[in-house]
């Protein structure tokens, strides 16, 4: 069992969207998956309610005691994916503690990258005390056909955490499918499906 936490204290960075689509892609490969909604806003649970629980099992564990609480529910799963809460630093620290792998969705702007510096710091501290923890940025809501701006590449390099080669582009299918209680794999947007599958492949190389 591997626990993957999708974290960024910055609100609206694409955590829930990546959580749902990536988990679905892993499930399509035959892995047994569970989403843990650690956000008191309950967005992943709202989505699950929209699906009537038919697509992916979702459970809410939205207290700072996440690292303890999660132990009771992980048995039997190949991947447990934690959808992170914005702002709540206690919840974020608990999710970091629980995770084997952390993905940080981030919009390609320096302001958004700087907002994730606390998270990067917590990850580095865990790695320094010898925790077996891997982490990477995933550029999210990128504008099509633009290269990452130089300043973004520079900030990414300063953080000394890798970024996935595959990026998530800003596409209507992401927003509309979640609202409908679906995923991009239930839409006709093959490009969105491809980019999620590419991210899944990069992730699986780590496992
Ligand atoms: N690749 C994308 N293309 C278009 N819209 C997107 C994309 N990713 C996310 N969005 C939209 O951006 C908004 C924020 O996304 P999302 O809810 O996934 O972020 P979040 O990090 O989970 O937010 P919060 O911090 O509030 O939990 C939503 O309206 C979502 O539909
Ligand atoms: Mg969210």
TrEMBL record:
Pfam families: CbiA. It comes from the Bacteria. Residues 4-184 form the CobQ/CobB/MinD/ParA nucleotide binding domain. Signal peptide: none annotated. SUPFAM superfamilies: P-loop containing nucleoside triphosphate hydrolases. NCBIfam families: ParA_partition. This is AAA family ATPase.
């Amino acid at each position: 069992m591997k626990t993957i936490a999708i974290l960024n204290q910055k609100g609206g960075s694409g955590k829930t969207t990546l959580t749902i689509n990536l988990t679905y892609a892993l499930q399509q490969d035959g892995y047994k998956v569970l989403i843990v909604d650690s956000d008191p806003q309950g967005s992943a649970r709202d989505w699950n309610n929209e699906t009537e629980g038919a697509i992916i099992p979702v459970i809410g564990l939205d207290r700072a005691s996440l690292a303890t609480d999660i132990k009771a529910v992980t048995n039997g799963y190949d991947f447990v994916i934690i959808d992170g809460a914005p702002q709540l630093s206690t919840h974020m620290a608990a999710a970091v503690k629980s995770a084997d792998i952390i993905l940080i969705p981030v919009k390609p702007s320096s302001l958004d990258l700087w907002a994730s510096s606390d998270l990067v710091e917590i990850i580095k501290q865990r790695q320094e005390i010898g925790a077996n923890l891997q982490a990477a940025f995933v550029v999210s809501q990128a504008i099509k056909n633009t290269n990452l701006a130089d300043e973004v590449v520079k900030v990414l390099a300063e953080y000394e955490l890798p970024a996935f080669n595959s990026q998530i582009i800003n596409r209507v299918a992401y927003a509309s499918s979640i609202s409908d209680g679906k995923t991009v794999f239930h839409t006709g947007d093959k490009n969105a499906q491809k980019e999620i599958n590419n991210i899944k492949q990069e992730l699986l190389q780590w496992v």
